Amino acid sequence: MSARVALLRLQAKGLIELPAPRNGNGNGKVWQPTLRLEPPPQPLQVSLSELQPLELQLVRRPEQSQLWNSLVAQYHFLGHYNLPGAQLRYLICANQQVLGAIGFGAAAWSVALRDRFIGWTAAQRQRALPRVLNNARFLLLPWVRVAHLASPLLARCARQLPGDFSARYGWRPVLLETFVQEPYRGTCYRAAQWVPLGQTQGRGKKGPHPRGDQTPVPVKHVWVYPLAPDFRRALCAEEPLG
């Protein structure tokens, strides 16, 4: 997807000419879920201990991807969109039941609060940004009413994700970020020991538009979670990913 976006931008600038899309390009079309998961007759109301062991199933197969996309499209208040860049998606499961979905993709290009927290230069950011991942979606299905479930899941992600990501892409992320939009405040992130950095300025994930005419986006709360104690050294190093 990132390569596709880059090619379309080069074409828009007149630098290249792409062939006509063979199957249509889908621009402007809203993705529609291919599966419909209906609520059970009764909500799931059990204690956290009764759900053990919790499981994060890494999405690898087409049927898992179809289910993940459909759950997010149906039940996440922001809906579905294709995660950008290097990414991992998980189905949240317990006792052979699907409880929700969580996904991580490429980090935002420019976030003043995050960049000050890290302390990197623009050149260091350009080189090391792939080592930061964005928790773009976190969904617990509306009929899952289990107290204190979200923060243990975030903690499990922090333990499992670096190894899964390294196995797939060949390098380890060292920092997670997320943006929590009102009316949500990020309580579960606080409980999972994520660090609150403040609020965005409504400029979007790519930073200020070069012409200054970018449409404002909703203000969001910024949270980060270091995956390694030396994350700043790793992000500011003058060396390639590893």
What attributes does this structure have?
alpha+beta, Aminopeptidase, seven-stranded mixed sheet, 29% helix, globular
Walk me through the topology.
Elements: H1 2-12, E1 54-58, H2 62-75, E2 88-94, E3 97-106, H3 112-118, H4 122-128, E4 132-140, H5 150-169, E5 175-181, H6 187-191, E6 195-199, E7 220-226, H7 231-236
Parallel strand pairs: 4-5
Antiparallel strand pairs: 1-2, 2-3, 3-4, 5-7, 6-7
What can you tell me about this protein's structure?
With 242 residues, the protein is of the alpha+beta class. It has one domain (45-236): Aminopeptidase. The protein has helices at residues 2-12, 62-75, 112-118, 122-128, 150-169, 187-191, 231-236, and strands spanning 54-58, 88-94, 97-106, 132-140, 175-181, 195-199, 220-226. Strands 1-2-3-4-5-7-6 form a seven-stranded mixed beta sheet, sandwiched between helices. The longest helix has 20 residues, at 150-169. The chain is globular and about 55 Å long. 26% of the residues are buried.
Number of domains: 1
At CATH level 3, the topology is Aminopeptidase
Write the H/E string, N to C. Answer: HEHEEHHEHEHEEH
Write down the overall geometry: globular
CATH level 1 name:
Alpha Beta
Question: Which residue ranges are poorly predicted, with pLDDT under 50 across at least 5 consecutive positions?
Answer: none
Mean pLDDT reading: 88
CATH architectural category: 3-Layer(aba) Sandwich
User: Which percent range fits the helix content?
Assistant: 25-40%
Alpha carbon gap, first and last residue: 23 Å
